[in-house]
Design a protein that fits this description.
single chain; mainly alpha; four-stranded antiparallel sheet; two-stranded antiparallel sheet; 6 strands; 56% helix; globular; Transcription factor domain-containing protein
Length: 641
Amino acid sequence: MCRAEHFLESHVERLTKTINDIQVKLGGDPSLQLEQEIDRSPVSDGSDAESTDSEGLIAEESSHLRSLFHNDILSFDRNQQHERALERRKKASATLCERVRPALQRLIPAKDETAEMLVITYDWMHMLASLLPQPASPNSHHALLGRYDEMCQPDVDVVDLASWLLTVAITAQQIPQQSNDTGPSPLSSRKRLNFSRAVSETVESLVLSHDWLVGTIAGLGLGLHFVRLLIGRGDLHGAWLKLRHFIALGELMGLPKAAQSARQKKFNGVVNEDTARKAQVWELMCTIDRMVGIFVNLPPYTRRFSNTAPFPIMVDGVVQPSIYISRLMDITPEVFGHDDISGGQDSKSKSYTAALEVARQARALAGEAPKSWWAIDMDDDLKPDHIVQFVHYCILMKAYLPTVLRQERSQEYGYSRFACIDACKAVAHRYQSIRRKLPSGFFSLNVLDLQAFTAVVLLLLMSHSSPLPDFQIFQIDKSGIEGVVAEVLQLMEEKSAEGPGSDFAHRGAHTIRCLCDLFKQDENGGNSVNEMTANVPLIGRIRVRRNTQTSQNLNTQRQASSNQVLQVAGWNSKEQFVPTAYNPQLDAAACLQNSAMTVPIVPEFQWDQLLWSVEDPSESLFDDAIWSDGFGQPAMWQNMY
């Protein structure tokens, strides 16, 4: 302590002497007097030796004194600060990895069991490598199995190990078809799913809970695999929240700036490897975010970020699925923000304009591919091109949806209605081709079933109502639509019995069957109204009323209600009621109700044998069918057993 005081007093004395000398030179008297109360060893004031010795002495003092003059706040050596922070992070990471690695390695199955889990009818890794290329990600199950021994090493990277386990877990959920050969019995579905569940729970609790482990390029790749696993399980709620979290980490890592820098440097020179990898991961996250937003009807978080430059989709005469899907996702931000069906005239106009703009951009993009590329054969092997086409029509269906749900009596509505019907039919056709070729448990089955279900419900509603009966050009091919609906319904009912990944198909088929039964009921005469209420994901709560009154009953009711004030044309949803058996789940919500209710009759009822309206089921999305517990993780695991 004495040495520290000696050091401080020495500096104060030198400063005092310097100030006094300056004042003397300026013609004044010294104003500062230094009273020395502590004896100290003689040193040469102001000498370099004193400074050097004093600094050496202070370096030997305790840490709290050293921090007074040597700390990160006062230091201008930012590189040294960064290196120290990295060193501390590496030490903490090493400690955590030593604890996590053994827990993860205990989940690795025997090599022969791993090989059996990776025997699949459709290699989803190859499809993802073509559609959504990801840095350092295996592009086949052979490459995945080839890293088995590496994953068992005591020094394997924890993030790589967790990513490898998740990839195996996603693949293990694909249940192969039972064969009739007499070979060794395959792994049971229960064992596959138990392994997948154990991996997801362990990775989430031990790895994904640490942002500084996930906050790397490899860590974000791990996070995207986890999102795919949740989607395959039917946990869209969890997948959506996790994806948002990983996108936020990407922002903290500076990925948007890296992507912008990479785009600029591509025109000026070569992009360094690190920047290119960051840009690739960010563009991948933007594409996935926008695609999931379309599928679950929520605006993507990354819509304010521009994606890749519009590269040509054709390379050497071949359509590039990854470029097409990336450019297609750049169109999706136009879809959101104009879907409030209860809005005023200005909202309706913006919605219609937005739909036209999306259709124009999608049509221009589709025109860059040859017409032969759009031809589809049900017997063709499943290709990434088919997935791209399916997503293309899902976006068009989503774009026209708000306009169609308003049921406006205008020519603009008529054109939008026809365009929406075409998009829904295209979704239904491609759904059949894709769904038949994917194995049970494939991670995107629930998403495919959800889009097809939405398309079929819209086709049923639009084919059984005539908002513009006076315009012959807006009359639709009702029998053709019924044929498409019947094909999709049959396929969904077939897939409902396949176990893993069939939950949405089962619920969707039940609701479609109830709607079809409602529309096909014979008119029994009398004063009866057939009614149905269904909570349809992506659309809302649909209330359907089938008007079955005969002309004689119409005349009778007109006379009985001659003294009453007639309501405006259409159906006031407030007159409806939800049956006591109503359940917010997609399948349980569908129910038929024959009622002897007396309803106001207006001339427009002569045109519309079917009246329907749509309202949001709740202000909280947690009450929506695809976000509720019935579609969540616990129920899915129970149903798969």
